[in-house]
Specification:
Layout lengths: L1 H21 L52 H14 L3 E2 L18 E5 L5 H25 L1 E6 L2 E4 L8 E2 L7 E5 L1 H5 L3 H4 L37 E3 L11 H10 L9 H13 L10 H7 L4 E4 L6 H12 L11 H9 L13 H14 L9 H11 L1
Antiparallel strand pairs: 1-2, 2-6, 3-4, 3-6, 4-5, 7-8
């Protein structure tokens, strides 16, 4: 296998050298709008899939910006990075995941990859040119098969969702190719890797405005519903992986992890564990709902106040009997439901998580209802009856 990879790399390098000598087939002068970042070969070698490719193509991914803070390398970027290094034998692996304090970036979700190939080094530049020519040709056929949203190199960006614009001005990225993936691409669920095409994966959903989405393993074929305004505010500022300062130290003390003053992996893991058992979206970030649960004296405002258990039950019957609440929902109605169910104050977050689901199912069983976890008129009336 190693000999085969070495022979493949030699063939690629020879082809790249020929392309450099011949001048390639640029789409226009380098630097001009629509022109590529470097001269691209007319017949790139490109990458080879290990599985037969179907006749149909993967759907064009829309632009799906960062919505979560998930500093874990996803499988699609890892596989492409390793294949690039095996195929071309040039450059080195750059980063995939990183902290969430460096601005909007798919790197913060582990679904962006850097291949370190410097435009000032001829062999590295030629390898980058070959890959970029291959991945963008024919309106991005290979980008679609890999689940790539966009690539950046040498101050130019090309996107699969705007191929008519060609290469547009960007910035930096002169020492590496940046590749950002759709969620299907990041999960490795595309035809290049599996041999089958699927539907667009819109990724995880933000539940509370101003917060992150909770990362998920399951693809989502529909767009997310609108996020709900957080039902609680605190005096604490939101913090995420990579943050530093006193607020992080305070959270570490409350979470029982070493107080380093830096939002590190231990803090991220402990935050997720807290969220998992206290009816919060498992975002791994210290947003207002999480601070309110973790540091209750920091609460400055609540949307749902003054409800006893019986008052919440009566309010639910009067206002929500004609609607259905399902797991995963974030809303004022959920906070009132949690109050009517008699859940602990720390868990009345307004998010329909596993604890709320368990309480609803237990209520349904006791009331002789279908134990499906969905809450509508019958459940509200059962809650009123149980609350007296």
């Amino acid at each position: 296998m190693r000999d085969l990879i070495m022979r493949r790399a030699v063939v690629v390098l020879a082809t790249l050298a020929a392309a450099v000598c011949a001048g390639g087939a640029p789409a226009g002068a380098v630097g001009a709008a629509g022109a590529p970042p470097v001269e691209l070969p007319a017949a790139p070698v490109g990458l080879t899939s290990a599985v037969p490719q179907p006749a149909t193509l993967d759907p064009v991914s829309p632009y799906l910006p960062q919505v979560s803070c998930n500093p874990v390398d996803m499988v699609g970027p890892r596989m492409l990075r390793d294949l690039l290094l095996r195929t071309y034998g040039i450059g080195r692996a750059g980063g995939i995941s990183r902290g969430c304090t460096e601005g909007l970036s798919e790197h913060s979700e582990g679904r962006a990859m850097d291949w370190m190939v410097n435009v000032k080094v001829p062999a590295e530049k030629a390898a980058a040119a070959d890959f970029l020519a291959w991945v963008t040709r024919d309106d991005g056929v290979n980008a679609r098969r890999l689940g790539i949203m966009y690539v950046i190199y040498n101050k130019k960006i090309w996107s699969v969702y705007n191929t008519s614009a060609g290469w547009r001005p960007s910035y930096a990225h002169t020492d590496h190719v940046h590749v950002s993936f759709s969620w299907n691409g990041a999960r490795g669920n595309t035809s290049f890797w599996t041999g089958t095409t699927g539907v667009t994966d819109f990724g995880p959903c933000v539940r509370f405005k101003g917060s992150y989405a909770a990362p998920t393993d399951a693809p989502r074929a529909t767009r997310c519903a609108a996020a709900t305004t957080a039902l609680v505010r605190t005096s604490r500022a939101p913090r995420a992986f990579g943050s530093t300062g006193r607020a992080v130290s305070a959270a570490q003390t409350l979470l029982g992890v070493p107080m380093t003053g830096r939002f590190d992996t231990a803090t991220w893991t402990a935050t997720r564990a807290w969220q998992r058992v206290h009816e919060l979206p498992v975002t791994g970030a210290l947003d207002h709902p999480t601070w309110a649960s973790l540091d209750r004296p920091s609460i400055t405002r609540r949307t749902v106040t003054g409800f006893t258990r019986s008052k919440a039950a009566a309010y639910g019957v009067a206002h929500y009997s004609g609607k259905t609440l399902a797991p995963g929902r974030a809303a004022k109605a959920v906070a009132i439901l949690q109050t009517g169910l008699g859940m602990q104050a720390v868990d009345r977050t307004g998010y329909f998580g596993p604890g709320t689901l368990a309480a609803v199912v237990e209520l349904q069983r006791r009331a002789g209802l279908v134990a499906d976890g969905l809450v509508s008129g019958e459940e509200w009336r059962a809650i009123r009856s149980a609350a007296g």
